[in-house]
Amino acid sequence: MGFTIERKREIHRRRHRKAKVAKLKAKYLAATSKAEKERIAAKLKRISFYVELPASK
Predict the structure, then answer these.
(1) What angle in degrees, to the nearest 10, is found between the helix axes of 2-30 and 34-47?
(2) Residue 34 falls within a domain, yes or no?
(3) Which CB contacts under 8 angstroms, 24+ apart, belong to 18-22?
């Protein structure tokens, strides 16, 4: 029965990571200074290495 608990934890981690990545992408787009964008980009890469950074406006 340990499988179901571990599976729920895995799903929770994925959903939490997805929400956090979305929040950081929004912050990245709203950032004005280059240093701030680099800091947010580094945090995104730590959370999920394969995440694509949005093109800034």
Answers:
(1) 170
(2) yes
(3) 20/47, 21/47, 21/48, 21/51
**How far is residue 42 from each of residues 17, 34, 36, 46, 55, measured CA to CA in Å?**
15, 12, 10, 6, 15
| 36 within 8 A of 52, measured Cβ to Cβ | no
Total domains, the chain: 1
- Percent of the residues in the chain that have a pLDDT greater than 90, as a whole number: 79
Helix or strand run (H / E) with residue 45: helix 34-47
Q: Which tens digit of pLDDT belongs to each residue from 18-29?
A: 999 999 999 999
Is 35 among the domain residues? yes
Report the C-alpha gap between 6 and 40 in whole angstroms. 30
